[in-house]
């Protein structure tokens, strides 16, 4: 029994490294993904006019305004779907970006090879994650840690996340609506596709292809050189040479949906995130009943000694 527990914990530790990388996106650290076959329906003429940018304002300039309005909203409910190769994750919850990224998300790994691997820790295919500016917490419910009424969370600090994801700590970047728009602006080539109804809202669709080799800072826009360099670094790390980015913006200049699509080292990546209820509360409190990856490793060693 002890040997079986040790082996199971070892597998889970390896899987957690992959999970951290996959959740990173870009956003995988780079990499983001997601084509989006958005629902497109003709919006009413009046609503479409409201959603469109003012005359003579370029798409890039308008999207700079969007980053300010969306950034000021500070938080939103999100629904996302991430596919990287054979790994698929669907998540729902809330995230905030007023002072570093934070989130309360439940990810459904049903149908993914990762679900069975993590089940000894999570207790099932759905995994509860809490993100704070300093750490990520994964909800525990499996037999490896809960048999004796153990802690409810596994905590990864930013440093630990950086180690498991190859140097990136931007685990939530793929879902950040402000960062998503900045990525589109940073590509330097944004086009206005036109009015579309998405998630029941009249929106204006903007699209662009970002080439890693051509990523630049656009003068006068909301993307700094540091941000552009980080985006390029994330793309290079994931083996992405270019990606398709699309955003849908409503009449209040808030992001309703964002998608990204790219080919990565791990296979095709697609990310689709929808936003609603801007200003919603995110995390009530930071967990205190947690274990660390080192604690989990000790659990595996204990199984060996037993």
In short:
33% of the residues lie in helices and 30% in strands.
Can you put this structure into words, describing what you see?
The protein is α+β, with helices and mostly antiparallel strands. The protein has one domain (2-305): outer membrane lipoprotein receptor (LolB), chain A, CATH 2.50.20.20. Helix content is 33%, strand content 30%. It has 9 helices and 12 strands. A 12-stranded mixed beta sheet has the order 7-8-9-10-11-1-2-3-4-5-6-12. Helix 1 crosses helix 4 and helix 1 (2-23) runs antiparallel to helix 9 (293-305). Residues 1-49 and 217-221 have low confidence and may be disordered.
> What can be said about the biggest beta sheet?
12 strands, mixed
CATH architecture: Clam
Mean pLDDT: 75
Domains, number: 1
Estimated radius of gyration: 20 Å
Oligomerization state:
single chain
Portion of residues in beta strands equals 25-35%
Amino- and carboxy-terminal Cα gap: 9 Å
SSE order, one letter for each helix or strand: HHHEEEHEEHEHHEEHEEEEH
Query: What class would the helix/strand composition place it in?
Result: alpha+beta
Shape: globular
User: What is the helix fraction of residues, given as a range?
Assistant: 25-40%
Number of H/I helices: 9
CATH class category label: Mainly Beta
Total count of strands: 12
